[in-house]
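Researcher: Structure for this, please.
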Amino acid sequence: MSKLDRKVALVTGAGRGIGQAIAIKLASEGARVVINDLDAVPAEETATRIRSAGGEAAMCVGSVVSADFPQRFIDTALESFGGIDIIVNNAGYTWDNVIQKMSDEQWHAILDVHLGAPFRILRAASEFIRSAAKRESQAGSLVHRKVVNISSVSGLYGNAGQANYGAAKAGITGFTKSMAKEWGRYNVNVNCVAFGYIMTRLSQPLTSEAAHIEVDGRQIKIGVQPEAIDALRRLVPLGRLGTPEEAAGSVFLFCIPESDYITGQVLVCGGGY
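Model: Predicted structure, token format:
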């Protein structure tokens, strides 16, 4: 039997990069996965990869900051698979600037996607979580559910040009610790993984032909200065950036039964940075 056999896992931002790797990893261990992405095409790609390997997947496409998204996400899990066991709040992006050039829109957009969305998703899940825990307690069974929130070394140590992102990612660690205390009575383990520098499209070398992502009609430039990437490699004791699969592995640790007595913790997946 796989470690997550028949568990129902919800993963935001699962169409690409780390989120896709998380969804595929959980599915490979037997989880039935609800895949979210901003766009339908990458979400379908992840779902196809999971189904091709013999797994089960459903999709809930759309922005995690949309007012109707949290309930749609929860309803998709309940209607498709009949329950919720794992929630991974992974979706997000960066929109960097020094503070004197950062607009209120930039500030609030990043806090909303990294901190507001996880809050609203867990709030939407709370009715199911509480009622399921009550039924299981009355039946004399102990069922652990897992929440894994995603932070960053920028939230732990700060990073120039990322006042918005660093604040949001610091906030998610406080949210994690508070929810661990609030939901412990329901046998929910709430933990956080803070990623270091992982090789994704957000950390690709920034060039004059830099890539962009579109979020709510905005074109946002993504990438990192090549010299900064070289400097990061020197700062990381393991001497390299991590892979999405390695990032997914750290999330997986908090989803398996072996972590049933671990809650309210922050794990840094950063190669020793």
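Researcher: Any notable elements?
Model: The beta strands are 8-11, 32-35, 57-59, 86-89, 145-152, 188-195, 212-215, 218-221, 266-269. The first helix runs from residue 17 to 28.
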